[in-house]
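Hmm, what's this shape?
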Amino acid sequence: MRSHLLNDTTAERYRGSVTEGIERVAAGLATTDRPFTEVTADGLAPRVEAVDLDAPLHDTIAALDELDELYLRDAVHSHHPRHLAHPNSPVVIPALLGEAVLSAVGSSLDTWDRSTGATLIERRIVDWTTERLGLGPAADGTFTGDSAQADLQALLLAREEREEAGEPDPARLRVFTSAAGDRGVRRTARLLGLGADAVVTVPVDRHKRMHTVALARELARCRREGLVPMAVVATAGTADFGSIDPLPEIAELCAQYETWLHVDASYGCGLLASTTRRHLLDGIEHADSVTVDFHKSFFQPVSSSAVLVRDRRVRDRGVRDHGVRASVPGQADESPQPTRRFDALKLWMTLRVMGADAIGSLFDEACRLASAGWKMIAADPRFDVVVEPRLATLVFRYIPSAVTSPADIDRANLYARKALFAAGDAVVAGVRAGNRQYLKFTLLNPETTTADIAAVLDLIAGHAEQYLGDSLVRAS
Protein backbone atom coordinates (compact mmCIF):
# COMPACT_ATOMS: atom_id res chain seq x y z
CA MET A 1 0.00 0.00 0.00
CA ARG A 2 1.30 3.40 -0.98
CA SER A 3 0.48 4.91 2.40
CA HIS A 4 3.47 3.03 3.83
CA LEU A 5 5.99 4.48 1.38
CA LEU A 6 8.21 7.18 2.87
CA ASN A 7 7.65 10.40 0.95
CA ASP A 8 6.33 13.93 1.31
CA THR A 9 2.76 12.77 1.90
CA THR A 10 3.60 10.25 4.67
CA ALA A 11 5.94 12.32 6.84
CA GLU A 12 3.52 12.32 9.77
CA ARG A 13 2.97 8.56 9.56
CA TYR A 14 6.75 8.12 9.55
CA ARG A 15 7.15 10.39 12.58
CA GLY A 16 4.44 8.61 14.53
CA SER A 17 5.62 5.08 13.72
CA VAL A 18 9.26 5.72 14.51
CA THR A 19 8.37 7.62 17.68
CA GLU A 20 6.25 4.70 18.87
CA GLY A 21 9.15 2.30 18.21
CA ILE A 22 11.59 4.54 20.07
CA GLU A 23 9.19 4.76 23.01
CA ARG A 24 9.12 0.97 23.25
CA VAL A 25 12.93 0.76 23.27
CA ALA A 26 13.24 3.62 25.78
CA ALA A 27 10.71 1.99 28.08
CA GLY A 28 12.68 -1.23 27.95
CA LEU A 29 15.91 0.57 28.78
CA ALA A 30 14.30 2.27 31.77
CA THR A 31 13.06 -1.01 33.26
CA THR A 32 16.01 -3.31 32.51
CA ASP A 33 17.50 -4.82 35.65
CA ARG A 34 19.33 -7.78 34.12
CA PRO A 35 21.22 -8.29 30.86
CA PHE A 36 19.02 -11.23 29.85
CA THR A 37 15.58 -12.69 30.57
CA GLU A 38 16.26 -16.45 30.73
CA VAL A 39 14.41 -17.14 27.47
CA THR A 40 15.53 -20.28 25.64
CA ALA A 41 15.60 -21.03 21.93
CA ASP A 42 13.21 -23.92 22.51
CA GLY A 43 10.77 -21.59 24.22
CA LEU A 44 10.97 -18.76 21.70
CA ALA A 45 11.23 -20.62 18.40
CA PRO A 46 7.63 -21.98 18.34
CA ARG A 47 6.24 -18.47 18.85
CA VAL A 48 8.26 -17.10 15.95
CA GLU A 49 7.41 -20.06 13.72
CA ALA A 50 3.71 -19.61 14.48
CA VAL A 51 3.63 -16.18 12.85
CA ASP A 52 1.90 -16.24 9.47
CA LEU A 53 3.92 -13.82 7.35
CA ASP A 54 1.24 -13.95 4.66
CA ALA A 55 -1.33 -12.49 7.06
CA PRO A 56 -0.21 -8.92 7.86
CA LEU A 57 -1.53 -7.15 10.94
CA HIS A 58 -2.22 -3.87 9.06
CA ASP A 59 -1.47 -1.96 12.25
CA THR A 60 1.84 -0.57 13.51
CA ILE A 61 0.89 -0.79 17.19
CA ALA A 62 -0.12 -4.43 16.81
CA ALA A 63 3.12 -5.22 14.99
CA LEU A 64 5.14 -3.57 17.75
CA ASP A 65 3.15 -5.47 20.39
CA GLU A 66 4.04 -8.68 18.58
CA LEU A 67 7.69 -7.58 18.33
CA ASP A 68 7.74 -7.02 22.07
CA GLU A 69 6.76 -10.66 22.57
CA LEU A 70 9.15 -12.10 19.99
CA TYR A 71 12.22 -9.90 20.34
CA LEU A 72 12.32 -6.73 22.41
CA ARG A 73 11.32 -8.28 25.72
CA ASP A 74 13.99 -10.99 25.50
CA ALA A 75 16.76 -9.15 23.66
CA VAL A 76 20.22 -9.36 25.22
CA HIS A 77 20.91 -5.91 26.68
CA SER A 78 24.47 -5.09 25.66
CA HIS A 79 24.22 -1.74 27.48
CA HIS A 80 23.79 -3.46 30.85
CA PRO A 81 26.80 -3.19 33.22
CA ARG A 82 26.89 -6.96 33.64
CA HIS A 83 26.96 -7.73 29.93
CA LEU A 84 30.65 -8.61 29.93
CA ALA A 85 31.01 -11.04 27.07
CA HIS A 86 32.03 -9.53 23.76
CA PRO A 87 34.24 -6.75 22.35
CA ASN A 88 31.29 -4.60 21.33
CA SER A 89 30.94 -1.38 23.24
CA PRO A 90 27.62 0.16 24.34
CA VAL A 91 26.49 2.84 21.93
CA VAL A 92 26.34 6.62 22.27
CA ILE A 93 23.20 8.59 21.46
CA PRO A 94 24.68 10.78 18.66
CA ALA A 95 25.56 7.60 16.76
CA LEU A 96 21.99 6.33 17.15
CA LEU A 97 20.76 9.61 15.74
CA GLY A 98 23.05 9.09 12.76
CA GLU A 99 21.70 5.54 12.36
CA ALA A 100 18.12 6.81 12.28
CA VAL A 101 18.94 9.46 9.69
CA LEU A 102 20.94 7.23 7.36
CA SER A 103 18.30 4.48 7.46
CA ALA A 104 15.51 6.85 6.49
CA VAL A 105 17.34 8.85 3.83
CA GLY A 106 18.79 5.68 2.32
CA SER A 107 21.89 7.05 0.61
CA SER A 108 24.05 4.48 -1.16
CA LEU A 109 27.78 5.13 -1.34
CA ASP A 110 28.31 4.14 -4.96
CA THR A 111 27.54 7.12 -7.18
CA TRP A 112 27.36 10.87 -6.57
CA ASP A 113 23.74 11.03 -7.66
CA ARG A 114 22.82 8.55 -4.90
CA SER A 115 24.96 9.98 -2.14
CA THR A 116 26.12 13.62 -2.66
CA GLY A 117 27.34 14.84 0.75
CA ALA A 118 27.43 11.29 2.12
CA THR A 119 30.39 10.49 -0.13
CA LEU A 120 32.26 13.58 1.04
CA ILE A 121 31.54 12.85 4.70
CA GLU A 122 32.76 9.25 4.41
CA ARG A 123 35.94 10.42 2.68
CA ARG A 124 36.51 12.99 5.42
CA ILE A 125 36.09 10.32 8.12
CA VAL A 126 38.52 8.07 6.22
CA ASP A 127 41.05 10.91 6.01
CA TRP A 128 40.62 11.64 9.73
CA THR A 129 41.27 7.98 10.55
CA THR A 130 44.35 7.66 8.33
CA GLU A 131 45.72 10.84 9.91
CA ARG A 132 45.25 9.35 13.36
CA LEU A 133 46.95 6.17 12.18
CA GLY A 134 49.84 8.15 10.70
CA LEU A 135 49.70 6.35 7.35
CA GLY A 136 50.84 9.37 5.36
CA PRO A 137 49.47 11.69 2.65
CA ALA A 138 48.87 8.95 0.05
CA ALA A 139 46.62 6.94 2.37
CA ASP A 140 42.98 6.18 1.63
CA GLY A 141 40.30 3.71 2.59
CA THR A 142 36.65 2.78 2.60
CA PHE A 143 33.96 1.65 5.01
CA THR A 144 33.06 -2.04 4.93
CA GLY A 145 30.28 -4.26 6.23
CA ASP A 146 32.49 -5.66 9.01
CA SER A 147 36.09 -6.44 9.88
CA ALA A 148 36.01 -9.74 7.98
CA GLN A 149 35.27 -7.85 4.76
CA ALA A 150 38.00 -5.34 5.59
CA ASP A 151 40.57 -8.09 6.17
CA LEU A 152 39.52 -9.80 2.96
CA GLN A 153 40.00 -6.62 0.96
CA ALA A 154 43.38 -5.94 2.57
CA LEU A 155 44.73 -9.40 1.84
CA LEU A 156 43.32 -9.22 -1.69
CA LEU A 157 45.53 -6.16 -2.19
CA ALA A 158 48.51 -8.03 -0.71
CA ARG A 159 47.95 -10.84 -3.20
CA GLU A 160 47.61 -8.37 -6.07
CA GLU A 161 50.95 -6.85 -5.06
CA ARG A 162 52.64 -10.25 -5.31
CA GLU A 163 51.14 -10.76 -8.75
CA GLU A 164 52.41 -7.32 -9.78
CA ALA A 165 55.85 -8.41 -8.58
CA GLY A 166 55.73 -11.45 -10.86
CA GLU A 167 54.45 -14.17 -8.57
CA PRO A 168 51.44 -15.71 -10.36
CA ASP A 169 51.30 -19.01 -8.44
CA PRO A 170 48.98 -18.64 -5.40
CA ALA A 171 50.08 -22.04 -4.06
CA ARG A 172 53.46 -20.53 -3.15
CA LEU A 173 52.03 -17.61 -1.16
CA ARG A 174 52.09 -17.60 2.63
CA VAL A 175 50.24 -15.48 5.21
CA PHE A 176 51.55 -15.24 8.78
CA THR A 177 49.39 -14.62 11.84
CA SER A 178 49.75 -15.27 15.54
CA ALA A 179 48.30 -18.21 17.44
CA ALA A 180 46.19 -15.68 19.38
CA GLY A 181 45.11 -13.76 16.27
CA ASP A 182 41.86 -13.78 14.34
CA ARG A 183 40.87 -17.28 13.29
CA GLY A 184 39.13 -15.66 10.32
CA VAL A 185 42.50 -15.32 8.56
CA ARG A 186 42.22 -18.95 7.41
CA ARG A 187 38.74 -18.34 6.03
CA THR A 188 39.99 -15.24 4.24
CA ALA A 189 42.86 -17.20 2.70
CA ARG A 190 40.43 -19.82 1.40
CA LEU A 191 38.22 -17.13 -0.15
CA LEU A 192 41.29 -15.75 -1.94
CA GLY A 193 41.99 -19.13 -3.48
CA LEU A 194 45.20 -19.75 -1.55
CA GLY A 195 46.30 -23.25 -0.67
CA ALA A 196 45.35 -25.17 2.46
CA ASP A 197 48.83 -24.55 3.88
CA ALA A 198 48.84 -20.85 3.06
CA VAL A 199 48.38 -19.62 6.65
CA VAL A 200 51.38 -20.01 8.95
CA THR A 201 50.58 -19.75 12.66
CA VAL A 202 53.27 -18.00 14.66
CA PRO A 203 53.67 -18.81 18.38
CA VAL A 204 52.94 -16.15 21.01
CA ASP A 205 54.88 -15.01 24.05
CA ARG A 206 53.60 -15.12 27.63
CA HIS A 207 51.66 -11.92 27.01
CA LYS A 208 49.80 -13.59 24.09
CA ARG A 209 51.60 -11.38 21.55
CA MET A 210 53.14 -12.62 18.32
CA HIS A 211 56.67 -13.83 19.07
CA THR A 212 58.90 -11.85 16.73
CA VAL A 213 61.81 -14.28 16.99
CA ALA A 214 59.46 -17.05 15.89
CA LEU A 215 58.13 -14.83 13.09
CA ALA A 216 61.66 -14.14 11.84
CA ARG A 217 62.37 -17.87 11.90
CA GLU A 218 59.20 -18.67 9.92
CA LEU A 219 59.88 -15.95 7.33
CA ALA A 220 63.41 -17.27 6.81
CA ARG A 221 62.13 -20.83 6.48
CA CYS A 222 59.56 -19.68 3.94
CA ARG A 223 62.29 -18.16 1.78
CA ARG A 224 64.55 -21.21 2.09
CA GLU A 225 61.77 -23.47 0.88
CA GLY A 226 61.16 -21.33 -2.19
CA LEU A 227 57.86 -19.96 -0.92
CA VAL A 228 56.69 -16.33 -0.99
CA PRO A 229 55.77 -14.43 2.21
CA MET A 230 52.70 -12.57 0.97
CA ALA A 231 51.57 -10.87 4.18
CA VAL A 232 51.91 -10.72 7.94
CA VAL A 233 48.63 -10.12 9.79
CA ALA A 234 49.46 -8.46 13.11
CA THR A 235 46.77 -7.77 15.67
CA ALA A 236 46.19 -4.68 17.79
CA GLY A 237 43.73 -6.13 20.26
CA THR A 238 43.09 -9.86 19.88
CA ALA A 239 39.49 -10.93 20.36
CA ASP A 240 40.36 -13.48 23.06
CA PHE A 241 42.98 -11.62 25.11
CA GLY A 242 43.08 -7.99 23.95
CA SER A 243 46.80 -8.44 23.31
CA ILE A 244 48.70 -6.12 20.98
CA ASP A 245 51.46 -7.56 18.83
CA PRO A 246 54.88 -5.79 18.85
CA LEU A 247 54.15 -3.69 15.78
CA PRO A 248 57.53 -1.87 15.37
CA GLU A 249 59.50 -5.13 15.34
CA ILE A 250 57.02 -6.81 13.01
CA ALA A 251 57.17 -3.83 10.66
CA GLU A 252 60.97 -4.14 10.48
CA LEU A 253 60.71 -7.81 9.55
CA CYS A 254 58.10 -7.06 6.89
CA ALA A 255 60.39 -4.42 5.38
CA GLN A 256 63.31 -6.85 5.42
CA TYR A 257 61.32 -9.56 3.63
CA GLU A 258 59.35 -7.16 1.40
CA THR A 259 56.12 -8.47 2.87
CA TRP A 260 52.78 -6.70 3.17
CA LEU A 261 51.95 -5.72 6.74
CA HIS A 262 48.27 -5.77 7.63
CA VAL A 263 47.24 -4.74 11.14
CA ASP A 264 43.87 -5.90 12.42
CA ALA A 265 43.00 -3.10 14.84
CA SER A 266 39.31 -4.00 14.98
CA TYR A 267 39.34 -3.92 18.78
CA GLY A 268 42.32 -1.69 19.51
CA CYS A 269 41.25 1.18 17.26
CA GLY A 270 39.76 2.90 20.31
CA LEU A 271 43.35 3.79 21.20
CA LEU A 272 43.32 6.23 18.27
CA ALA A 273 41.17 8.53 20.41
CA SER A 274 42.91 7.84 23.72
CA THR A 275 44.84 10.67 25.34
CA THR A 276 46.78 8.31 27.63
CA ARG A 277 47.24 5.01 25.76
CA ARG A 278 47.83 5.96 22.11
CA HIS A 279 51.45 4.78 22.42
CA LEU A 280 50.22 1.18 22.55
CA LEU A 281 49.63 1.50 18.79
CA ASP A 282 53.16 2.71 18.04
CA GLY A 283 54.35 1.06 14.84
CA ILE A 284 50.92 0.93 13.21
CA GLU A 285 51.99 3.85 11.02
CA HIS A 286 54.23 1.40 9.11
CA ALA A 287 51.30 -0.82 8.09
CA ASP A 288 50.33 -1.25 4.45
CA SER A 289 46.71 -1.72 5.52
CA VAL A 290 44.68 -1.50 8.72
CA THR A 291 41.26 -2.79 9.74
CA VAL A 292 39.21 -0.82 12.26
CA ASP A 293 35.86 -1.66 13.86
CA PHE A 294 34.43 1.54 15.28
CA HIS A 295 31.55 -0.49 16.73
CA LYS A 296 33.99 -2.33 18.99
CA SER A 297 35.65 0.55 20.81
CA PHE A 298 34.26 3.85 19.47
CA PHE A 299 30.83 3.18 20.99
CA GLN A 300 29.06 2.90 17.63
CA PRO A 301 26.13 0.70 16.58
CA VAL A 302 26.91 -2.35 14.47
CA SER A 303 28.17 -2.10 11.86
CA SER A 304 30.84 0.54 11.52
CA SER A 305 34.05 -0.85 10.03
CA ALA A 306 36.67 0.33 7.58
CA VAL A 307 39.83 -0.75 5.78
CA LEU A 308 42.59 1.82 5.39
CA VAL A 309 45.60 1.58 3.05
CA ARG A 310 48.92 3.37 3.04
CA ASP A 311 48.98 3.90 -0.74
CA ARG A 312 45.74 4.57 -2.60
CA ARG A 313 47.42 3.63 -5.89
CA VAL A 314 47.83 0.06 -4.64
CA ARG A 315 44.16 -0.01 -3.66
CA ASP A 316 43.14 1.44 -7.02
CA ARG A 317 45.06 -1.24 -8.91
CA GLY A 318 43.32 -3.90 -6.87
CA VAL A 319 39.70 -2.74 -7.08
CA ARG A 320 39.30 0.00 -9.68
CA ASP A 321 38.58 -0.67 -13.33
CA HIS A 322 40.67 2.26 -14.53
CA GLY A 323 42.84 3.16 -11.53
CA VAL A 324 41.90 6.85 -11.52
CA ARG A 325 39.50 8.93 -9.49
CA ALA A 326 36.43 10.14 -11.31
CA SER A 327 36.01 13.89 -11.72
CA VAL A 328 32.62 13.61 -10.00
CA PRO A 329 33.01 12.03 -6.54
CA GLY A 330 31.67 8.50 -6.24
CA GLN A 331 32.52 5.33 -4.35
CA ALA A 332 31.48 2.55 -6.74
CA ASP A 333 35.10 1.63 -7.50
CA GLU A 334 36.44 2.16 -3.99
CA SER A 335 35.77 -1.42 -2.85
CA PRO A 336 34.37 -4.76 -4.03
CA GLN A 337 31.10 -3.72 -2.35
CA PRO A 338 29.82 -0.77 -4.39
CA THR A 339 26.36 -0.53 -2.78
CA ARG A 340 26.99 0.40 0.83
CA ARG A 341 25.16 2.07 3.69
CA PHE A 342 26.25 5.49 4.87
CA ASP A 343 27.70 4.03 8.10
CA ALA A 344 30.28 6.81 8.37
CA LEU A 345 27.47 9.17 9.40
CA LYS A 346 27.26 7.54 12.84
CA LEU A 347 30.88 8.34 13.63
CA TRP A 348 30.55 11.78 12.04
CA MET A 349 27.65 12.67 14.37
CA THR A 350 29.57 11.29 17.35
CA LEU A 351 32.64 13.38 16.59
CA ARG A 352 30.60 16.51 15.91
CA VAL A 353 28.51 16.22 19.09
CA MET A 354 31.01 14.67 21.54
CA GLY A 355 34.47 14.97 20.05
CA ALA A 356 37.27 12.42 19.85
CA ASP A 357 38.62 13.20 23.32
CA ALA A 358 35.28 12.25 24.90
CA ILE A 359 35.29 8.91 23.06
CA GLY A 360 38.89 8.34 24.07
CA SER A 361 38.03 9.12 27.68
CA LEU A 362 35.27 6.50 27.67
CA PHE A 363 37.65 3.91 26.22
CA ASP A 364 40.33 4.83 28.76
CA GLU A 365 37.78 4.35 31.55
CA ALA A 366 37.09 0.85 30.25
CA CYS A 367 40.80 0.04 30.16
CA ARG A 368 41.28 1.37 33.71
CA LEU A 369 38.38 -0.77 34.89
CA ALA A 370 40.02 -3.84 33.33
CA SER A 371 43.26 -3.05 35.17
CA ALA A 372 41.36 -2.78 38.45
CA GLY A 373 39.55 -6.03 37.68
CA TRP A 374 42.84 -7.78 36.95
CA LYS A 375 44.23 -6.76 40.34
CA MET A 376 41.03 -7.99 41.99
CA ILE A 377 41.13 -11.39 40.28
CA ALA A 378 44.89 -11.82 40.70
CA ALA A 379 44.48 -11.30 44.46
CA ASP A 380 41.56 -13.74 44.72
CA PRO A 381 42.73 -17.32 45.46
CA ARG A 382 39.58 -18.69 43.84
CA PHE A 383 40.71 -17.64 40.37
CA ASP A 384 43.60 -17.94 37.96
CA VAL A 385 44.04 -15.02 35.54
CA VAL A 386 46.01 -15.42 32.31
CA VAL A 387 47.60 -12.07 31.41
CA GLU A 388 47.54 -8.49 32.61
CA PRO A 389 45.22 -6.60 30.25
CA ARG A 390 46.47 -4.15 27.64
CA LEU A 391 42.95 -3.15 26.66
CA ALA A 392 39.71 -4.12 28.41
CA THR A 393 39.79 -7.93 28.34
CA LEU A 394 40.29 -10.28 31.29
CA VAL A 395 40.74 -14.04 30.81
CA PHE A 396 40.50 -16.13 33.97
CA ARG A 397 38.99 -19.27 35.46
CA TYR A 398 37.72 -20.57 38.74
CA ILE A 399 40.06 -22.91 40.62
CA PRO A 400 38.56 -24.88 43.54
CA SER A 401 40.46 -25.10 46.81
CA ALA A 402 40.23 -28.90 46.85
CA VAL A 403 42.33 -30.99 44.48
CA THR A 404 40.26 -31.46 41.34
CA SER A 405 41.08 -32.84 37.91
CA PRO A 406 41.72 -30.25 35.16
CA ALA A 407 38.87 -31.71 33.12
CA ASP A 408 36.42 -31.22 36.00
CA ILE A 409 37.64 -27.63 36.45
CA ASP A 410 37.01 -27.06 32.73
CA ARG A 411 33.49 -28.41 33.03
CA ALA A 412 32.80 -26.38 36.18
CA ASN A 413 33.79 -23.13 34.46
CA LEU A 414 31.74 -23.96 31.38
CA TYR A 415 28.77 -24.79 33.60
CA ALA A 416 29.15 -21.51 35.50
CA ARG A 417 29.09 -19.52 32.28
CA LYS A 418 25.96 -21.28 31.03
CA ALA A 419 24.23 -21.03 34.40
CA LEU A 420 24.88 -17.28 34.58
CA PHE A 421 23.33 -16.78 31.16
CA ALA A 422 20.40 -19.09 31.83
CA ALA A 423 19.59 -17.16 35.00
CA GLY A 424 19.94 -13.83 33.20
CA ASP A 425 22.28 -12.50 35.90
CA ALA A 426 25.29 -11.78 33.68
CA VAL A 427 26.71 -12.53 30.25
CA VAL A 428 30.33 -13.67 30.09
CA ALA A 429 32.28 -15.34 27.30
CA GLY A 430 34.33 -18.50 27.13
CA VAL A 431 37.75 -18.99 25.60
CA ARG A 432 40.37 -21.72 25.35
CA ALA A 433 43.83 -20.98 26.73
CA GLY A 434 46.51 -23.66 26.86
CA ASN A 435 43.87 -26.24 25.89
CA ARG A 436 41.91 -25.42 29.03
CA GLN A 437 38.50 -23.78 29.46
CA TYR A 438 38.62 -20.16 30.66
CA LEU A 439 36.11 -17.36 31.05
CA LYS A 440 36.37 -13.87 29.60
CA PHE A 441 35.23 -10.43 30.63
CA THR A 442 35.32 -7.68 28.01
CA LEU A 443 34.83 -4.56 30.08
CA LEU A 444 33.96 -1.97 27.46
CA ASN A 445 31.08 -0.42 29.38
CA PRO A 446 32.21 2.58 31.48
CA GLU A 447 29.07 2.09 33.58
CA THR A 448 30.37 -1.27 34.85
CA THR A 449 31.94 -0.99 38.31
CA THR A 450 34.36 -3.05 40.37
CA ALA A 451 31.33 -3.96 42.49
CA ASP A 452 29.72 -5.49 39.37
CA ILE A 453 32.90 -7.46 38.70
CA ALA A 454 33.05 -8.70 42.30
CA ALA A 455 29.38 -9.73 42.22
CA VAL A 456 29.77 -11.68 38.98
CA LEU A 457 32.92 -13.39 40.28
CA ASP A 458 30.97 -14.53 43.35
CA LEU A 459 28.19 -15.86 41.12
CA ILE A 460 30.73 -17.74 38.98
CA ALA A 461 32.33 -19.28 42.06
CA GLY A 462 28.94 -20.29 43.41
CA HIS A 463 27.83 -21.98 40.19
CA ALA A 464 31.17 -23.74 39.77
CA GLU A 465 31.10 -25.03 43.35
CA GLN A 466 27.54 -26.24 42.85
CA TYR A 467 28.61 -28.17 39.76
CA LEU A 468 31.60 -29.74 41.51
CA GLY A 469 29.48 -30.63 44.55
CA ASP A 470 26.82 -32.24 42.36
CA SER A 471 29.60 -34.14 40.53
CA LEU A 472 30.77 -35.65 43.80
CA VAL A 473 27.23 -36.71 44.61
CA ARG A 474 26.82 -38.29 41.17
CA ALA A 475 30.18 -40.08 41.51
CA SER A 476 29.19 -41.55 44.90
Q: What stands out?
A: The radius of gyration is 24 Å. The chain has 16 helices and eleven strands.
